[in-house]
Design a protein that fits this description.
Strand order of the largest sheet: 2-3-4-1-5
Distance between the termini: 91 Å
Strand content: under 5%
């Protein structure tokens, strides 16, 4: 059946999607009012219902079709266009609960069909009258609001009897309300109803709505009581665990804990991690066959690991081949630890190569820390300090500069015992780094018990050298596999037959220690209908896991062309997306028409069809509404094309080539971003355009990973042709991105896109941002700054923004377009001052930015006036130790230095440093930056030794925070070289500058202006050493690059020409 309009969220069988299941159904039906309602419904004759000929066959899809028809029928009205959104919670409610009525009646008409028939009839009549439509819209809006709220509580308090009874009364009233509407629109009475619609709504239906609201109030009261009951239960559990004496001291604090403290801890946990760690554990426990995994718990090494002693290692490495059941075994270990160590904190993490949030070192450490904090009565000081530092910067997410591994070691060392389990470590981005960091903590802190599950990867093995190991050999796992086979085969038809015994023997032998192989083989047998087909199935079982995957591909290859094309798209998107796709996202992506190069709504596939087509390679996780490959090895198989030489031609076309796959995803993503409702809209409705967020966050990544293609290049040109489209995308990116430094990531992505566009990443001249990229980022920042604080709060920190502004100013200068940047900021400042007032704090960042740009253009006095204006506003409205104020103070110090007023510059920097050291650790980026600027002022004053000491301290901090080849780290190395030059230590200065040049070539490119200027710096030092010819060679190389990149009239070019002329005059040959 074609897909019309918005699909209901629950696409599986309704009885499986109900949160209350059979218990709630029986509870609901015990209600007397509901029994009467069902009784009246069961007596309905189909002929009495409007549209009698169709009613008994009406389904939810028919209702959605009428919703879409109504939207088209009255498309001129914005209210009509929203009717689908209004109706969705109502239709979803009946999707989940109409089967309860069918079960209760068990005879007569299909009650679910009558429910859908009533809604369809209402919608059909609504097409004929705008007055009637407003009644429907008003009624359904009320129901939608109530159902949206009640469903959330339904999921949270499903096990609470009083809540369930209250909710049953609420749902009864909703069904009775529908019954009243149904009567009103029967064939005999709907015209009368239409004539008196206003009176009917005000008099008759208001009573029903009032009842619904009354029961909603009762339900909310029950929810409040249930919540208090849970808190009391939690308190009793704490008392039982930690003892009555400890409880006497802590329970009082817990009970009087203010709402602010509770919210603070919630925000802290959200800052540490947004990964749902518990879902992975639950999913793997559900996969486990009862009784399996016990052998691991009984091994000597595992028992030694669980019992800390000076003679045993704190770490344990359990490794095995792909598909050997490591993740299920890790779930068994976690469950065992939880059951036998009720008072000991236990943290765990499941890495996933297909989910960017589950494979980064930062997220792994953040999740482990968040779990430990959740299990402790008070938040450790080191965690609170790290969080407070981040919030002062305005960061809502963890960053490298938070030094989380140091924090984790501090937390672990404060506990008498703690367990950490890491699964699938080989799937994270830097498995060796993660293994090294956690193993180091285990070696340094005797209270930590660390267990790592992974493949036997050499990089991990090197970091875990000397750690006790359990290798999952086939002989250890086989009994578990046999138990799984016995249970699984017993659930299939033909239990006890000779054919099934043969199947057991064949699969057991072929599995060779691979649970995944056995599971796939059992799935193949599930289609057998008799002993003959069982024997045929086991005969076709391949010898290895790749053979299983090949068999699944061959099955897909035998499908029709249309189904093969759909399967190719499914595998492509699921394997190469940067994170698991939600169903609506995937459904939208699959509607891409290759011929028309656009998304076609009527080509959105059904969820069941997608699952059926790509089973068993793809799985759907209903609790997360996301699609995944069934195992990491599936992605490896599909993306490693060269090893599949035995596949048929049709099946081979289903394999995934990452460059081509990324090309197609980038094409779709860019097309989505250029759609009229999206391209200039910051607040996109994701219900209407479900792929918009994924496209916004990931198109750059897919583009740069794709093979270069003229068609894709054309699509990119269409997207990038509009400055408004580009800046809107940047603003959305900054709002939605969860990185700790989204601006830095944005700059990096833009550079990578430039390299891709050039057709070769070796074109080093494109490693700097183009002028239009600079303006795009600037416009994006301006748009973000003009948004209400509630929408953009925490998207970027003030310090990060100022760093980017400084880089923008320098890049504008290099491009010769600094006036454009100044004009954009001046216009934005004027607009914002008119909107929010001359002394609004929201204008300060624009004043600071203008000051930086004025200073870059050598309008130093104008820069000073602007920065002083910014400081006056901050001192009026912000506390003295506010970090944004210290940013302005530091900028004033820079301007004073450029004016030659070094004592005043020093005073400003010391003032900023004094404030920063009160609230930030010495290793913080803002303190490091302040030390650097203070050192530059000292050097200008002639205090070179003091400057050198501070620069070296800053270099150590930057190297740790940013890396040795970061542009800011390289600048500090150049500062150290200048100090050494001033101290007449020329050769060490030359050596440092040569390293600076190497780093800049690697990071910025050989023709970047900063790289070329480094040649000039080295040339000056060589000239001072009397090495004139070597100096001339370097200056000449710099000149060639400067003429090509900056032009013959640029100040850098003219300086180099002057230096060469001077050297020519000084040459002995002259």
């Amino acid at each position: 059946m074609p897909c019309f309009g918005r699909q209901p969220r629950i696409l599986t069988k309704p009885t499986n999607s109900s949160t209350f299941s059979s218990d709630t159904s029986s509870l609901w039906l015990e209600n007397g009012k509901m029994r009467r309602s069902i009784s009246s419904l069961s007596k309905i004759e189909p002929s009495n219902l409007y549209g009698a000929a169709e009613t008994s066959h009406v389904h939810v899809e028919d209702v959605w079709r009428e919703v879409r028809t109504l939207e088209r029928h009255r498309s001129a009205s914005s209210r009509y266009r929203e009717i689908g959104r209004t109706m969705e919670p109502v239709i979803d409610f009946f999707t989940r609960y109409s089967p309860v009525l069918d079960i209760a009646v068990q005879s007569g008409p299909n009650i679910a069909a009558l429910v859908w028939g009533s809604l369809k009839a209402v919608l059909v009549v609504a097409q004929t009258s705008i007055n009637y439509f407003y009644f429907i819209d008003k009624a359904m809006t009320k129901l939608s609001d109530l159902l949206n709220l009640s469903r959330q509580y339904e999921q949270l308090y499903a096990e609470e009897t009083r809540v369930r009874y209250a909710l049953s009364h609420l749902y009864d009233e909703i069904f009775l309300f529908l019954e009243k509407i149904r009567i009103a629109v029967t064939a005999k009475s709907w015209r009368i109803f239409f004539k008196n619609i206003q009176r009917s709504f005000d008099s008759d239906f208001n009573e029903n709505v009032s009842h619904i609201e009354r029961y909603t109030h009762i339900f909310n009261e029950e929810v409040t009581l249930a919540h208090r009951k849970r808190l009391d239960v939690s308190s009793r559990n704490i008392e039982r665990v930690v003892g009555s004496i400890y409880f006497e001291n802590t329970s009082l604090n817990y009970r009087v804990e203010s709402r602010e403290v509770y919210e603070h801890k919630s925000l802290l946990l959200g800052w540490l991690s947004q990964v749902d760690f518990a879902e992975d554990l639950e999913r793997n426990l559900n996969k486990r066959t009862p009784g399996t995994g016990r052998w691991l718990l009984d091994t000597v090494r595992f028992k030694q690991w669980t019992r800390p002693s000076p003679d045993t290692s704190g770490a344990l490495w359990i490794n095995g081949i792909p598909g050997s059941g490591k993740s299920v075994l890790s779930a068994t270990v976690i469950e065992y630890l939880k059951r036998n160590n009720e008072t000991t904190p236990i943290a765990y993490f499941y890495c996933d190569s297909g989910d960017a949030s589950k494979k980064s070192t930062l997220n792994i450490c953040g999740s482990i820390l968040s779990q430990l904090v959740m299990q402790l009565p008070t938040t450790p000081t080191s965690v609170s300090e790290a969080y407070n530092t981040a919030t002062r910067y305005g960061r809502q997410h963890i960053a490298t500069s938070d030094n989380l591994f140091e924090v984790a070691q501090d937390v672990v060392s404060s506990l008498p015992a703690v367990y950490i389990v890491l699964d699938a470590l080989d799937e994270c981005e830097n498995s060796a780094e993660v293994a090294s960091c956690f193993a180091s903590i285990a070696r340094n802190v005797s209270s930590l018990r660390l267990c790592i599950f992974s493949r036997n990867v050499a990089a991990i093995g090197m970091e875990l050298e000397g750690v006790p190991t359990i290798q999952l050999a086939a002989s250890l796992i086989q009994q578990d596999i046999n138990n799984y086979l016995s249970r699984s085969l017993d659930q299939l038809p033909g239990k006890g037959t000779k054919a099934q015994d043969q199947a057991y023997t064949k699969i057991s032998r072929a599995s060779d220690g691979m649970f995944l192989f056995a599971a796939l083989a059992v799935q193949n047998l599930s289609h057998a209908v008799d002993s003959k087909s069982v024997l045929e199935a086991i005969t076709s079982i391949p010898a290895e896991l790749d053979g299983m995957y090949s068999q699944a591909l061959e099955k897909l290859g035998s499908q029709s062309l249309h189904r093969r094309n759909l399967a190719r798209k499914i595998l492509l998107w699921v394997c190469c997306s940067t994170r698991p796709l939600f169903w609506k996202e995937l459904q939208s992506a699959l509607s891409w028409d290759d011929t028309k190069e656009m998304l076609e709504e009527d080509q959105r596939p059904f969820q069941d069809s997608v699952l059926d087509l790509c089973h068993p390679l793809i799985e759907f996780r209903a609790n997360k509404d996301t699609f995944h490959v069934v195992h990491f090895s599936v992605r490896e198989f599909l993306c490693n094309t060269p090893r599949h030489t035995s596949l048929s031609a049709a099946s081979s076309r289903l394999l995934v080539s990452p460059p081509i796959a990324n090309q197609e995803i980038a094409q779709v993503s860019l097309t989505v971003l250029t759609m009229a409702p999206i391209r200039h809209n910051i607040n996109v409705d994701l219900r209407l355009f479900p792929l918009a967020r994924y496209a916004t966050e990931n198109w750059c990544k897919h583009l740069t990973l794709s093979s270069f293609d003229q068609g894709l290049c054309k699509t990119y040109d269409i997207f990038s042709a509009s400055p408004a489209t580009r800046s809107t995308w940047i603003t959305r990116f900054l709002l939605w991105n969860k990185d700790s430094s989204p601006l830095q990531r944005l700059v990096r992505l833009q550079k990578e896109v430039r390299e891709w566009k050039s057709g070769s990443s070796q074109n080093t001249n494109n490693k700097s941002l183009a002028a239009e990229d600079l303006a795009d980022i600037q416009r994006g920042l301006i748009d973000l700054g003009e948004m209400p604080q509630s929408q953009n709060a925490g998207s970027i920190s003030g310090f990060e923004r100022d760093i980017i502004i400084r880089d923008l100013a320098r890049s504008y200068t290099m491009a010769g377009t600094i006036d454009l940047g100044i004009q954009l900021f001046e216009t934005a400042l004027s607009r914002l001052q008119k909107l929010r007032g001359m002394d609004s704090v929201s204008t300060v960042w624009l004043l600071n930015s203008l000051g930086i740009f004025y200073d870059q253009k050598n309008l130093t006095k104008q820069a000073l006036e602007t920065q002083l204006e910014a400081l006056a506003i901050q001192e009026k409205h912000l506390p003295a130790d506010h970090l944004d104020t210290t940013l302005t103070i530091n900028e004033l110090g820079r301007v004073m230095r450029h004016l030659g007023r070094y004592k005043e510059a020093e005073a400003y920097h010391l003032r900023a440093l004094q404030t920063l050291r009160k609230v930030l650790p010495e290793s913080d980026g803002q303190i490091v930056w302040t030390l650097n600027t203070l050192a530059r002022s000292y050097r200008r004053e002639g205090r070179t030794e003091e400057a050198l000491k501070l620069h070296r301290q800053a270099l150590e901090g930057q190297t740790k925070l940013l890396g040795k080849d970061h542009p800011h780290t390289i600048w500090t190395m150049g500062d150290i070289a200048r100090c050494l030059r001033d101290l007449d230590k020329l050769q060490p200065a030359v050596e440092i500058l040569q390293t600076v040049r190497e780093y800049r070539v690697h990071t910025l490119g050989q023709l970047h202006p900063d790289t070329l200027w480094t040649l000039n710096d080295i040339g000056l030092l060589l000239e001072s050493q009397g090495k004139v010819e070597q100096a001339k060679t370097l200056h000449s190389e710099a000149l060639d690059g400067q003429v090509a990149v900056l032009g013959a009239e640029h100040t850098h070019t003219l300086w180099t020409i002057s230096a060469l002329e001077r050297l020519e005059l000084a040459s002995p040959s002259k």
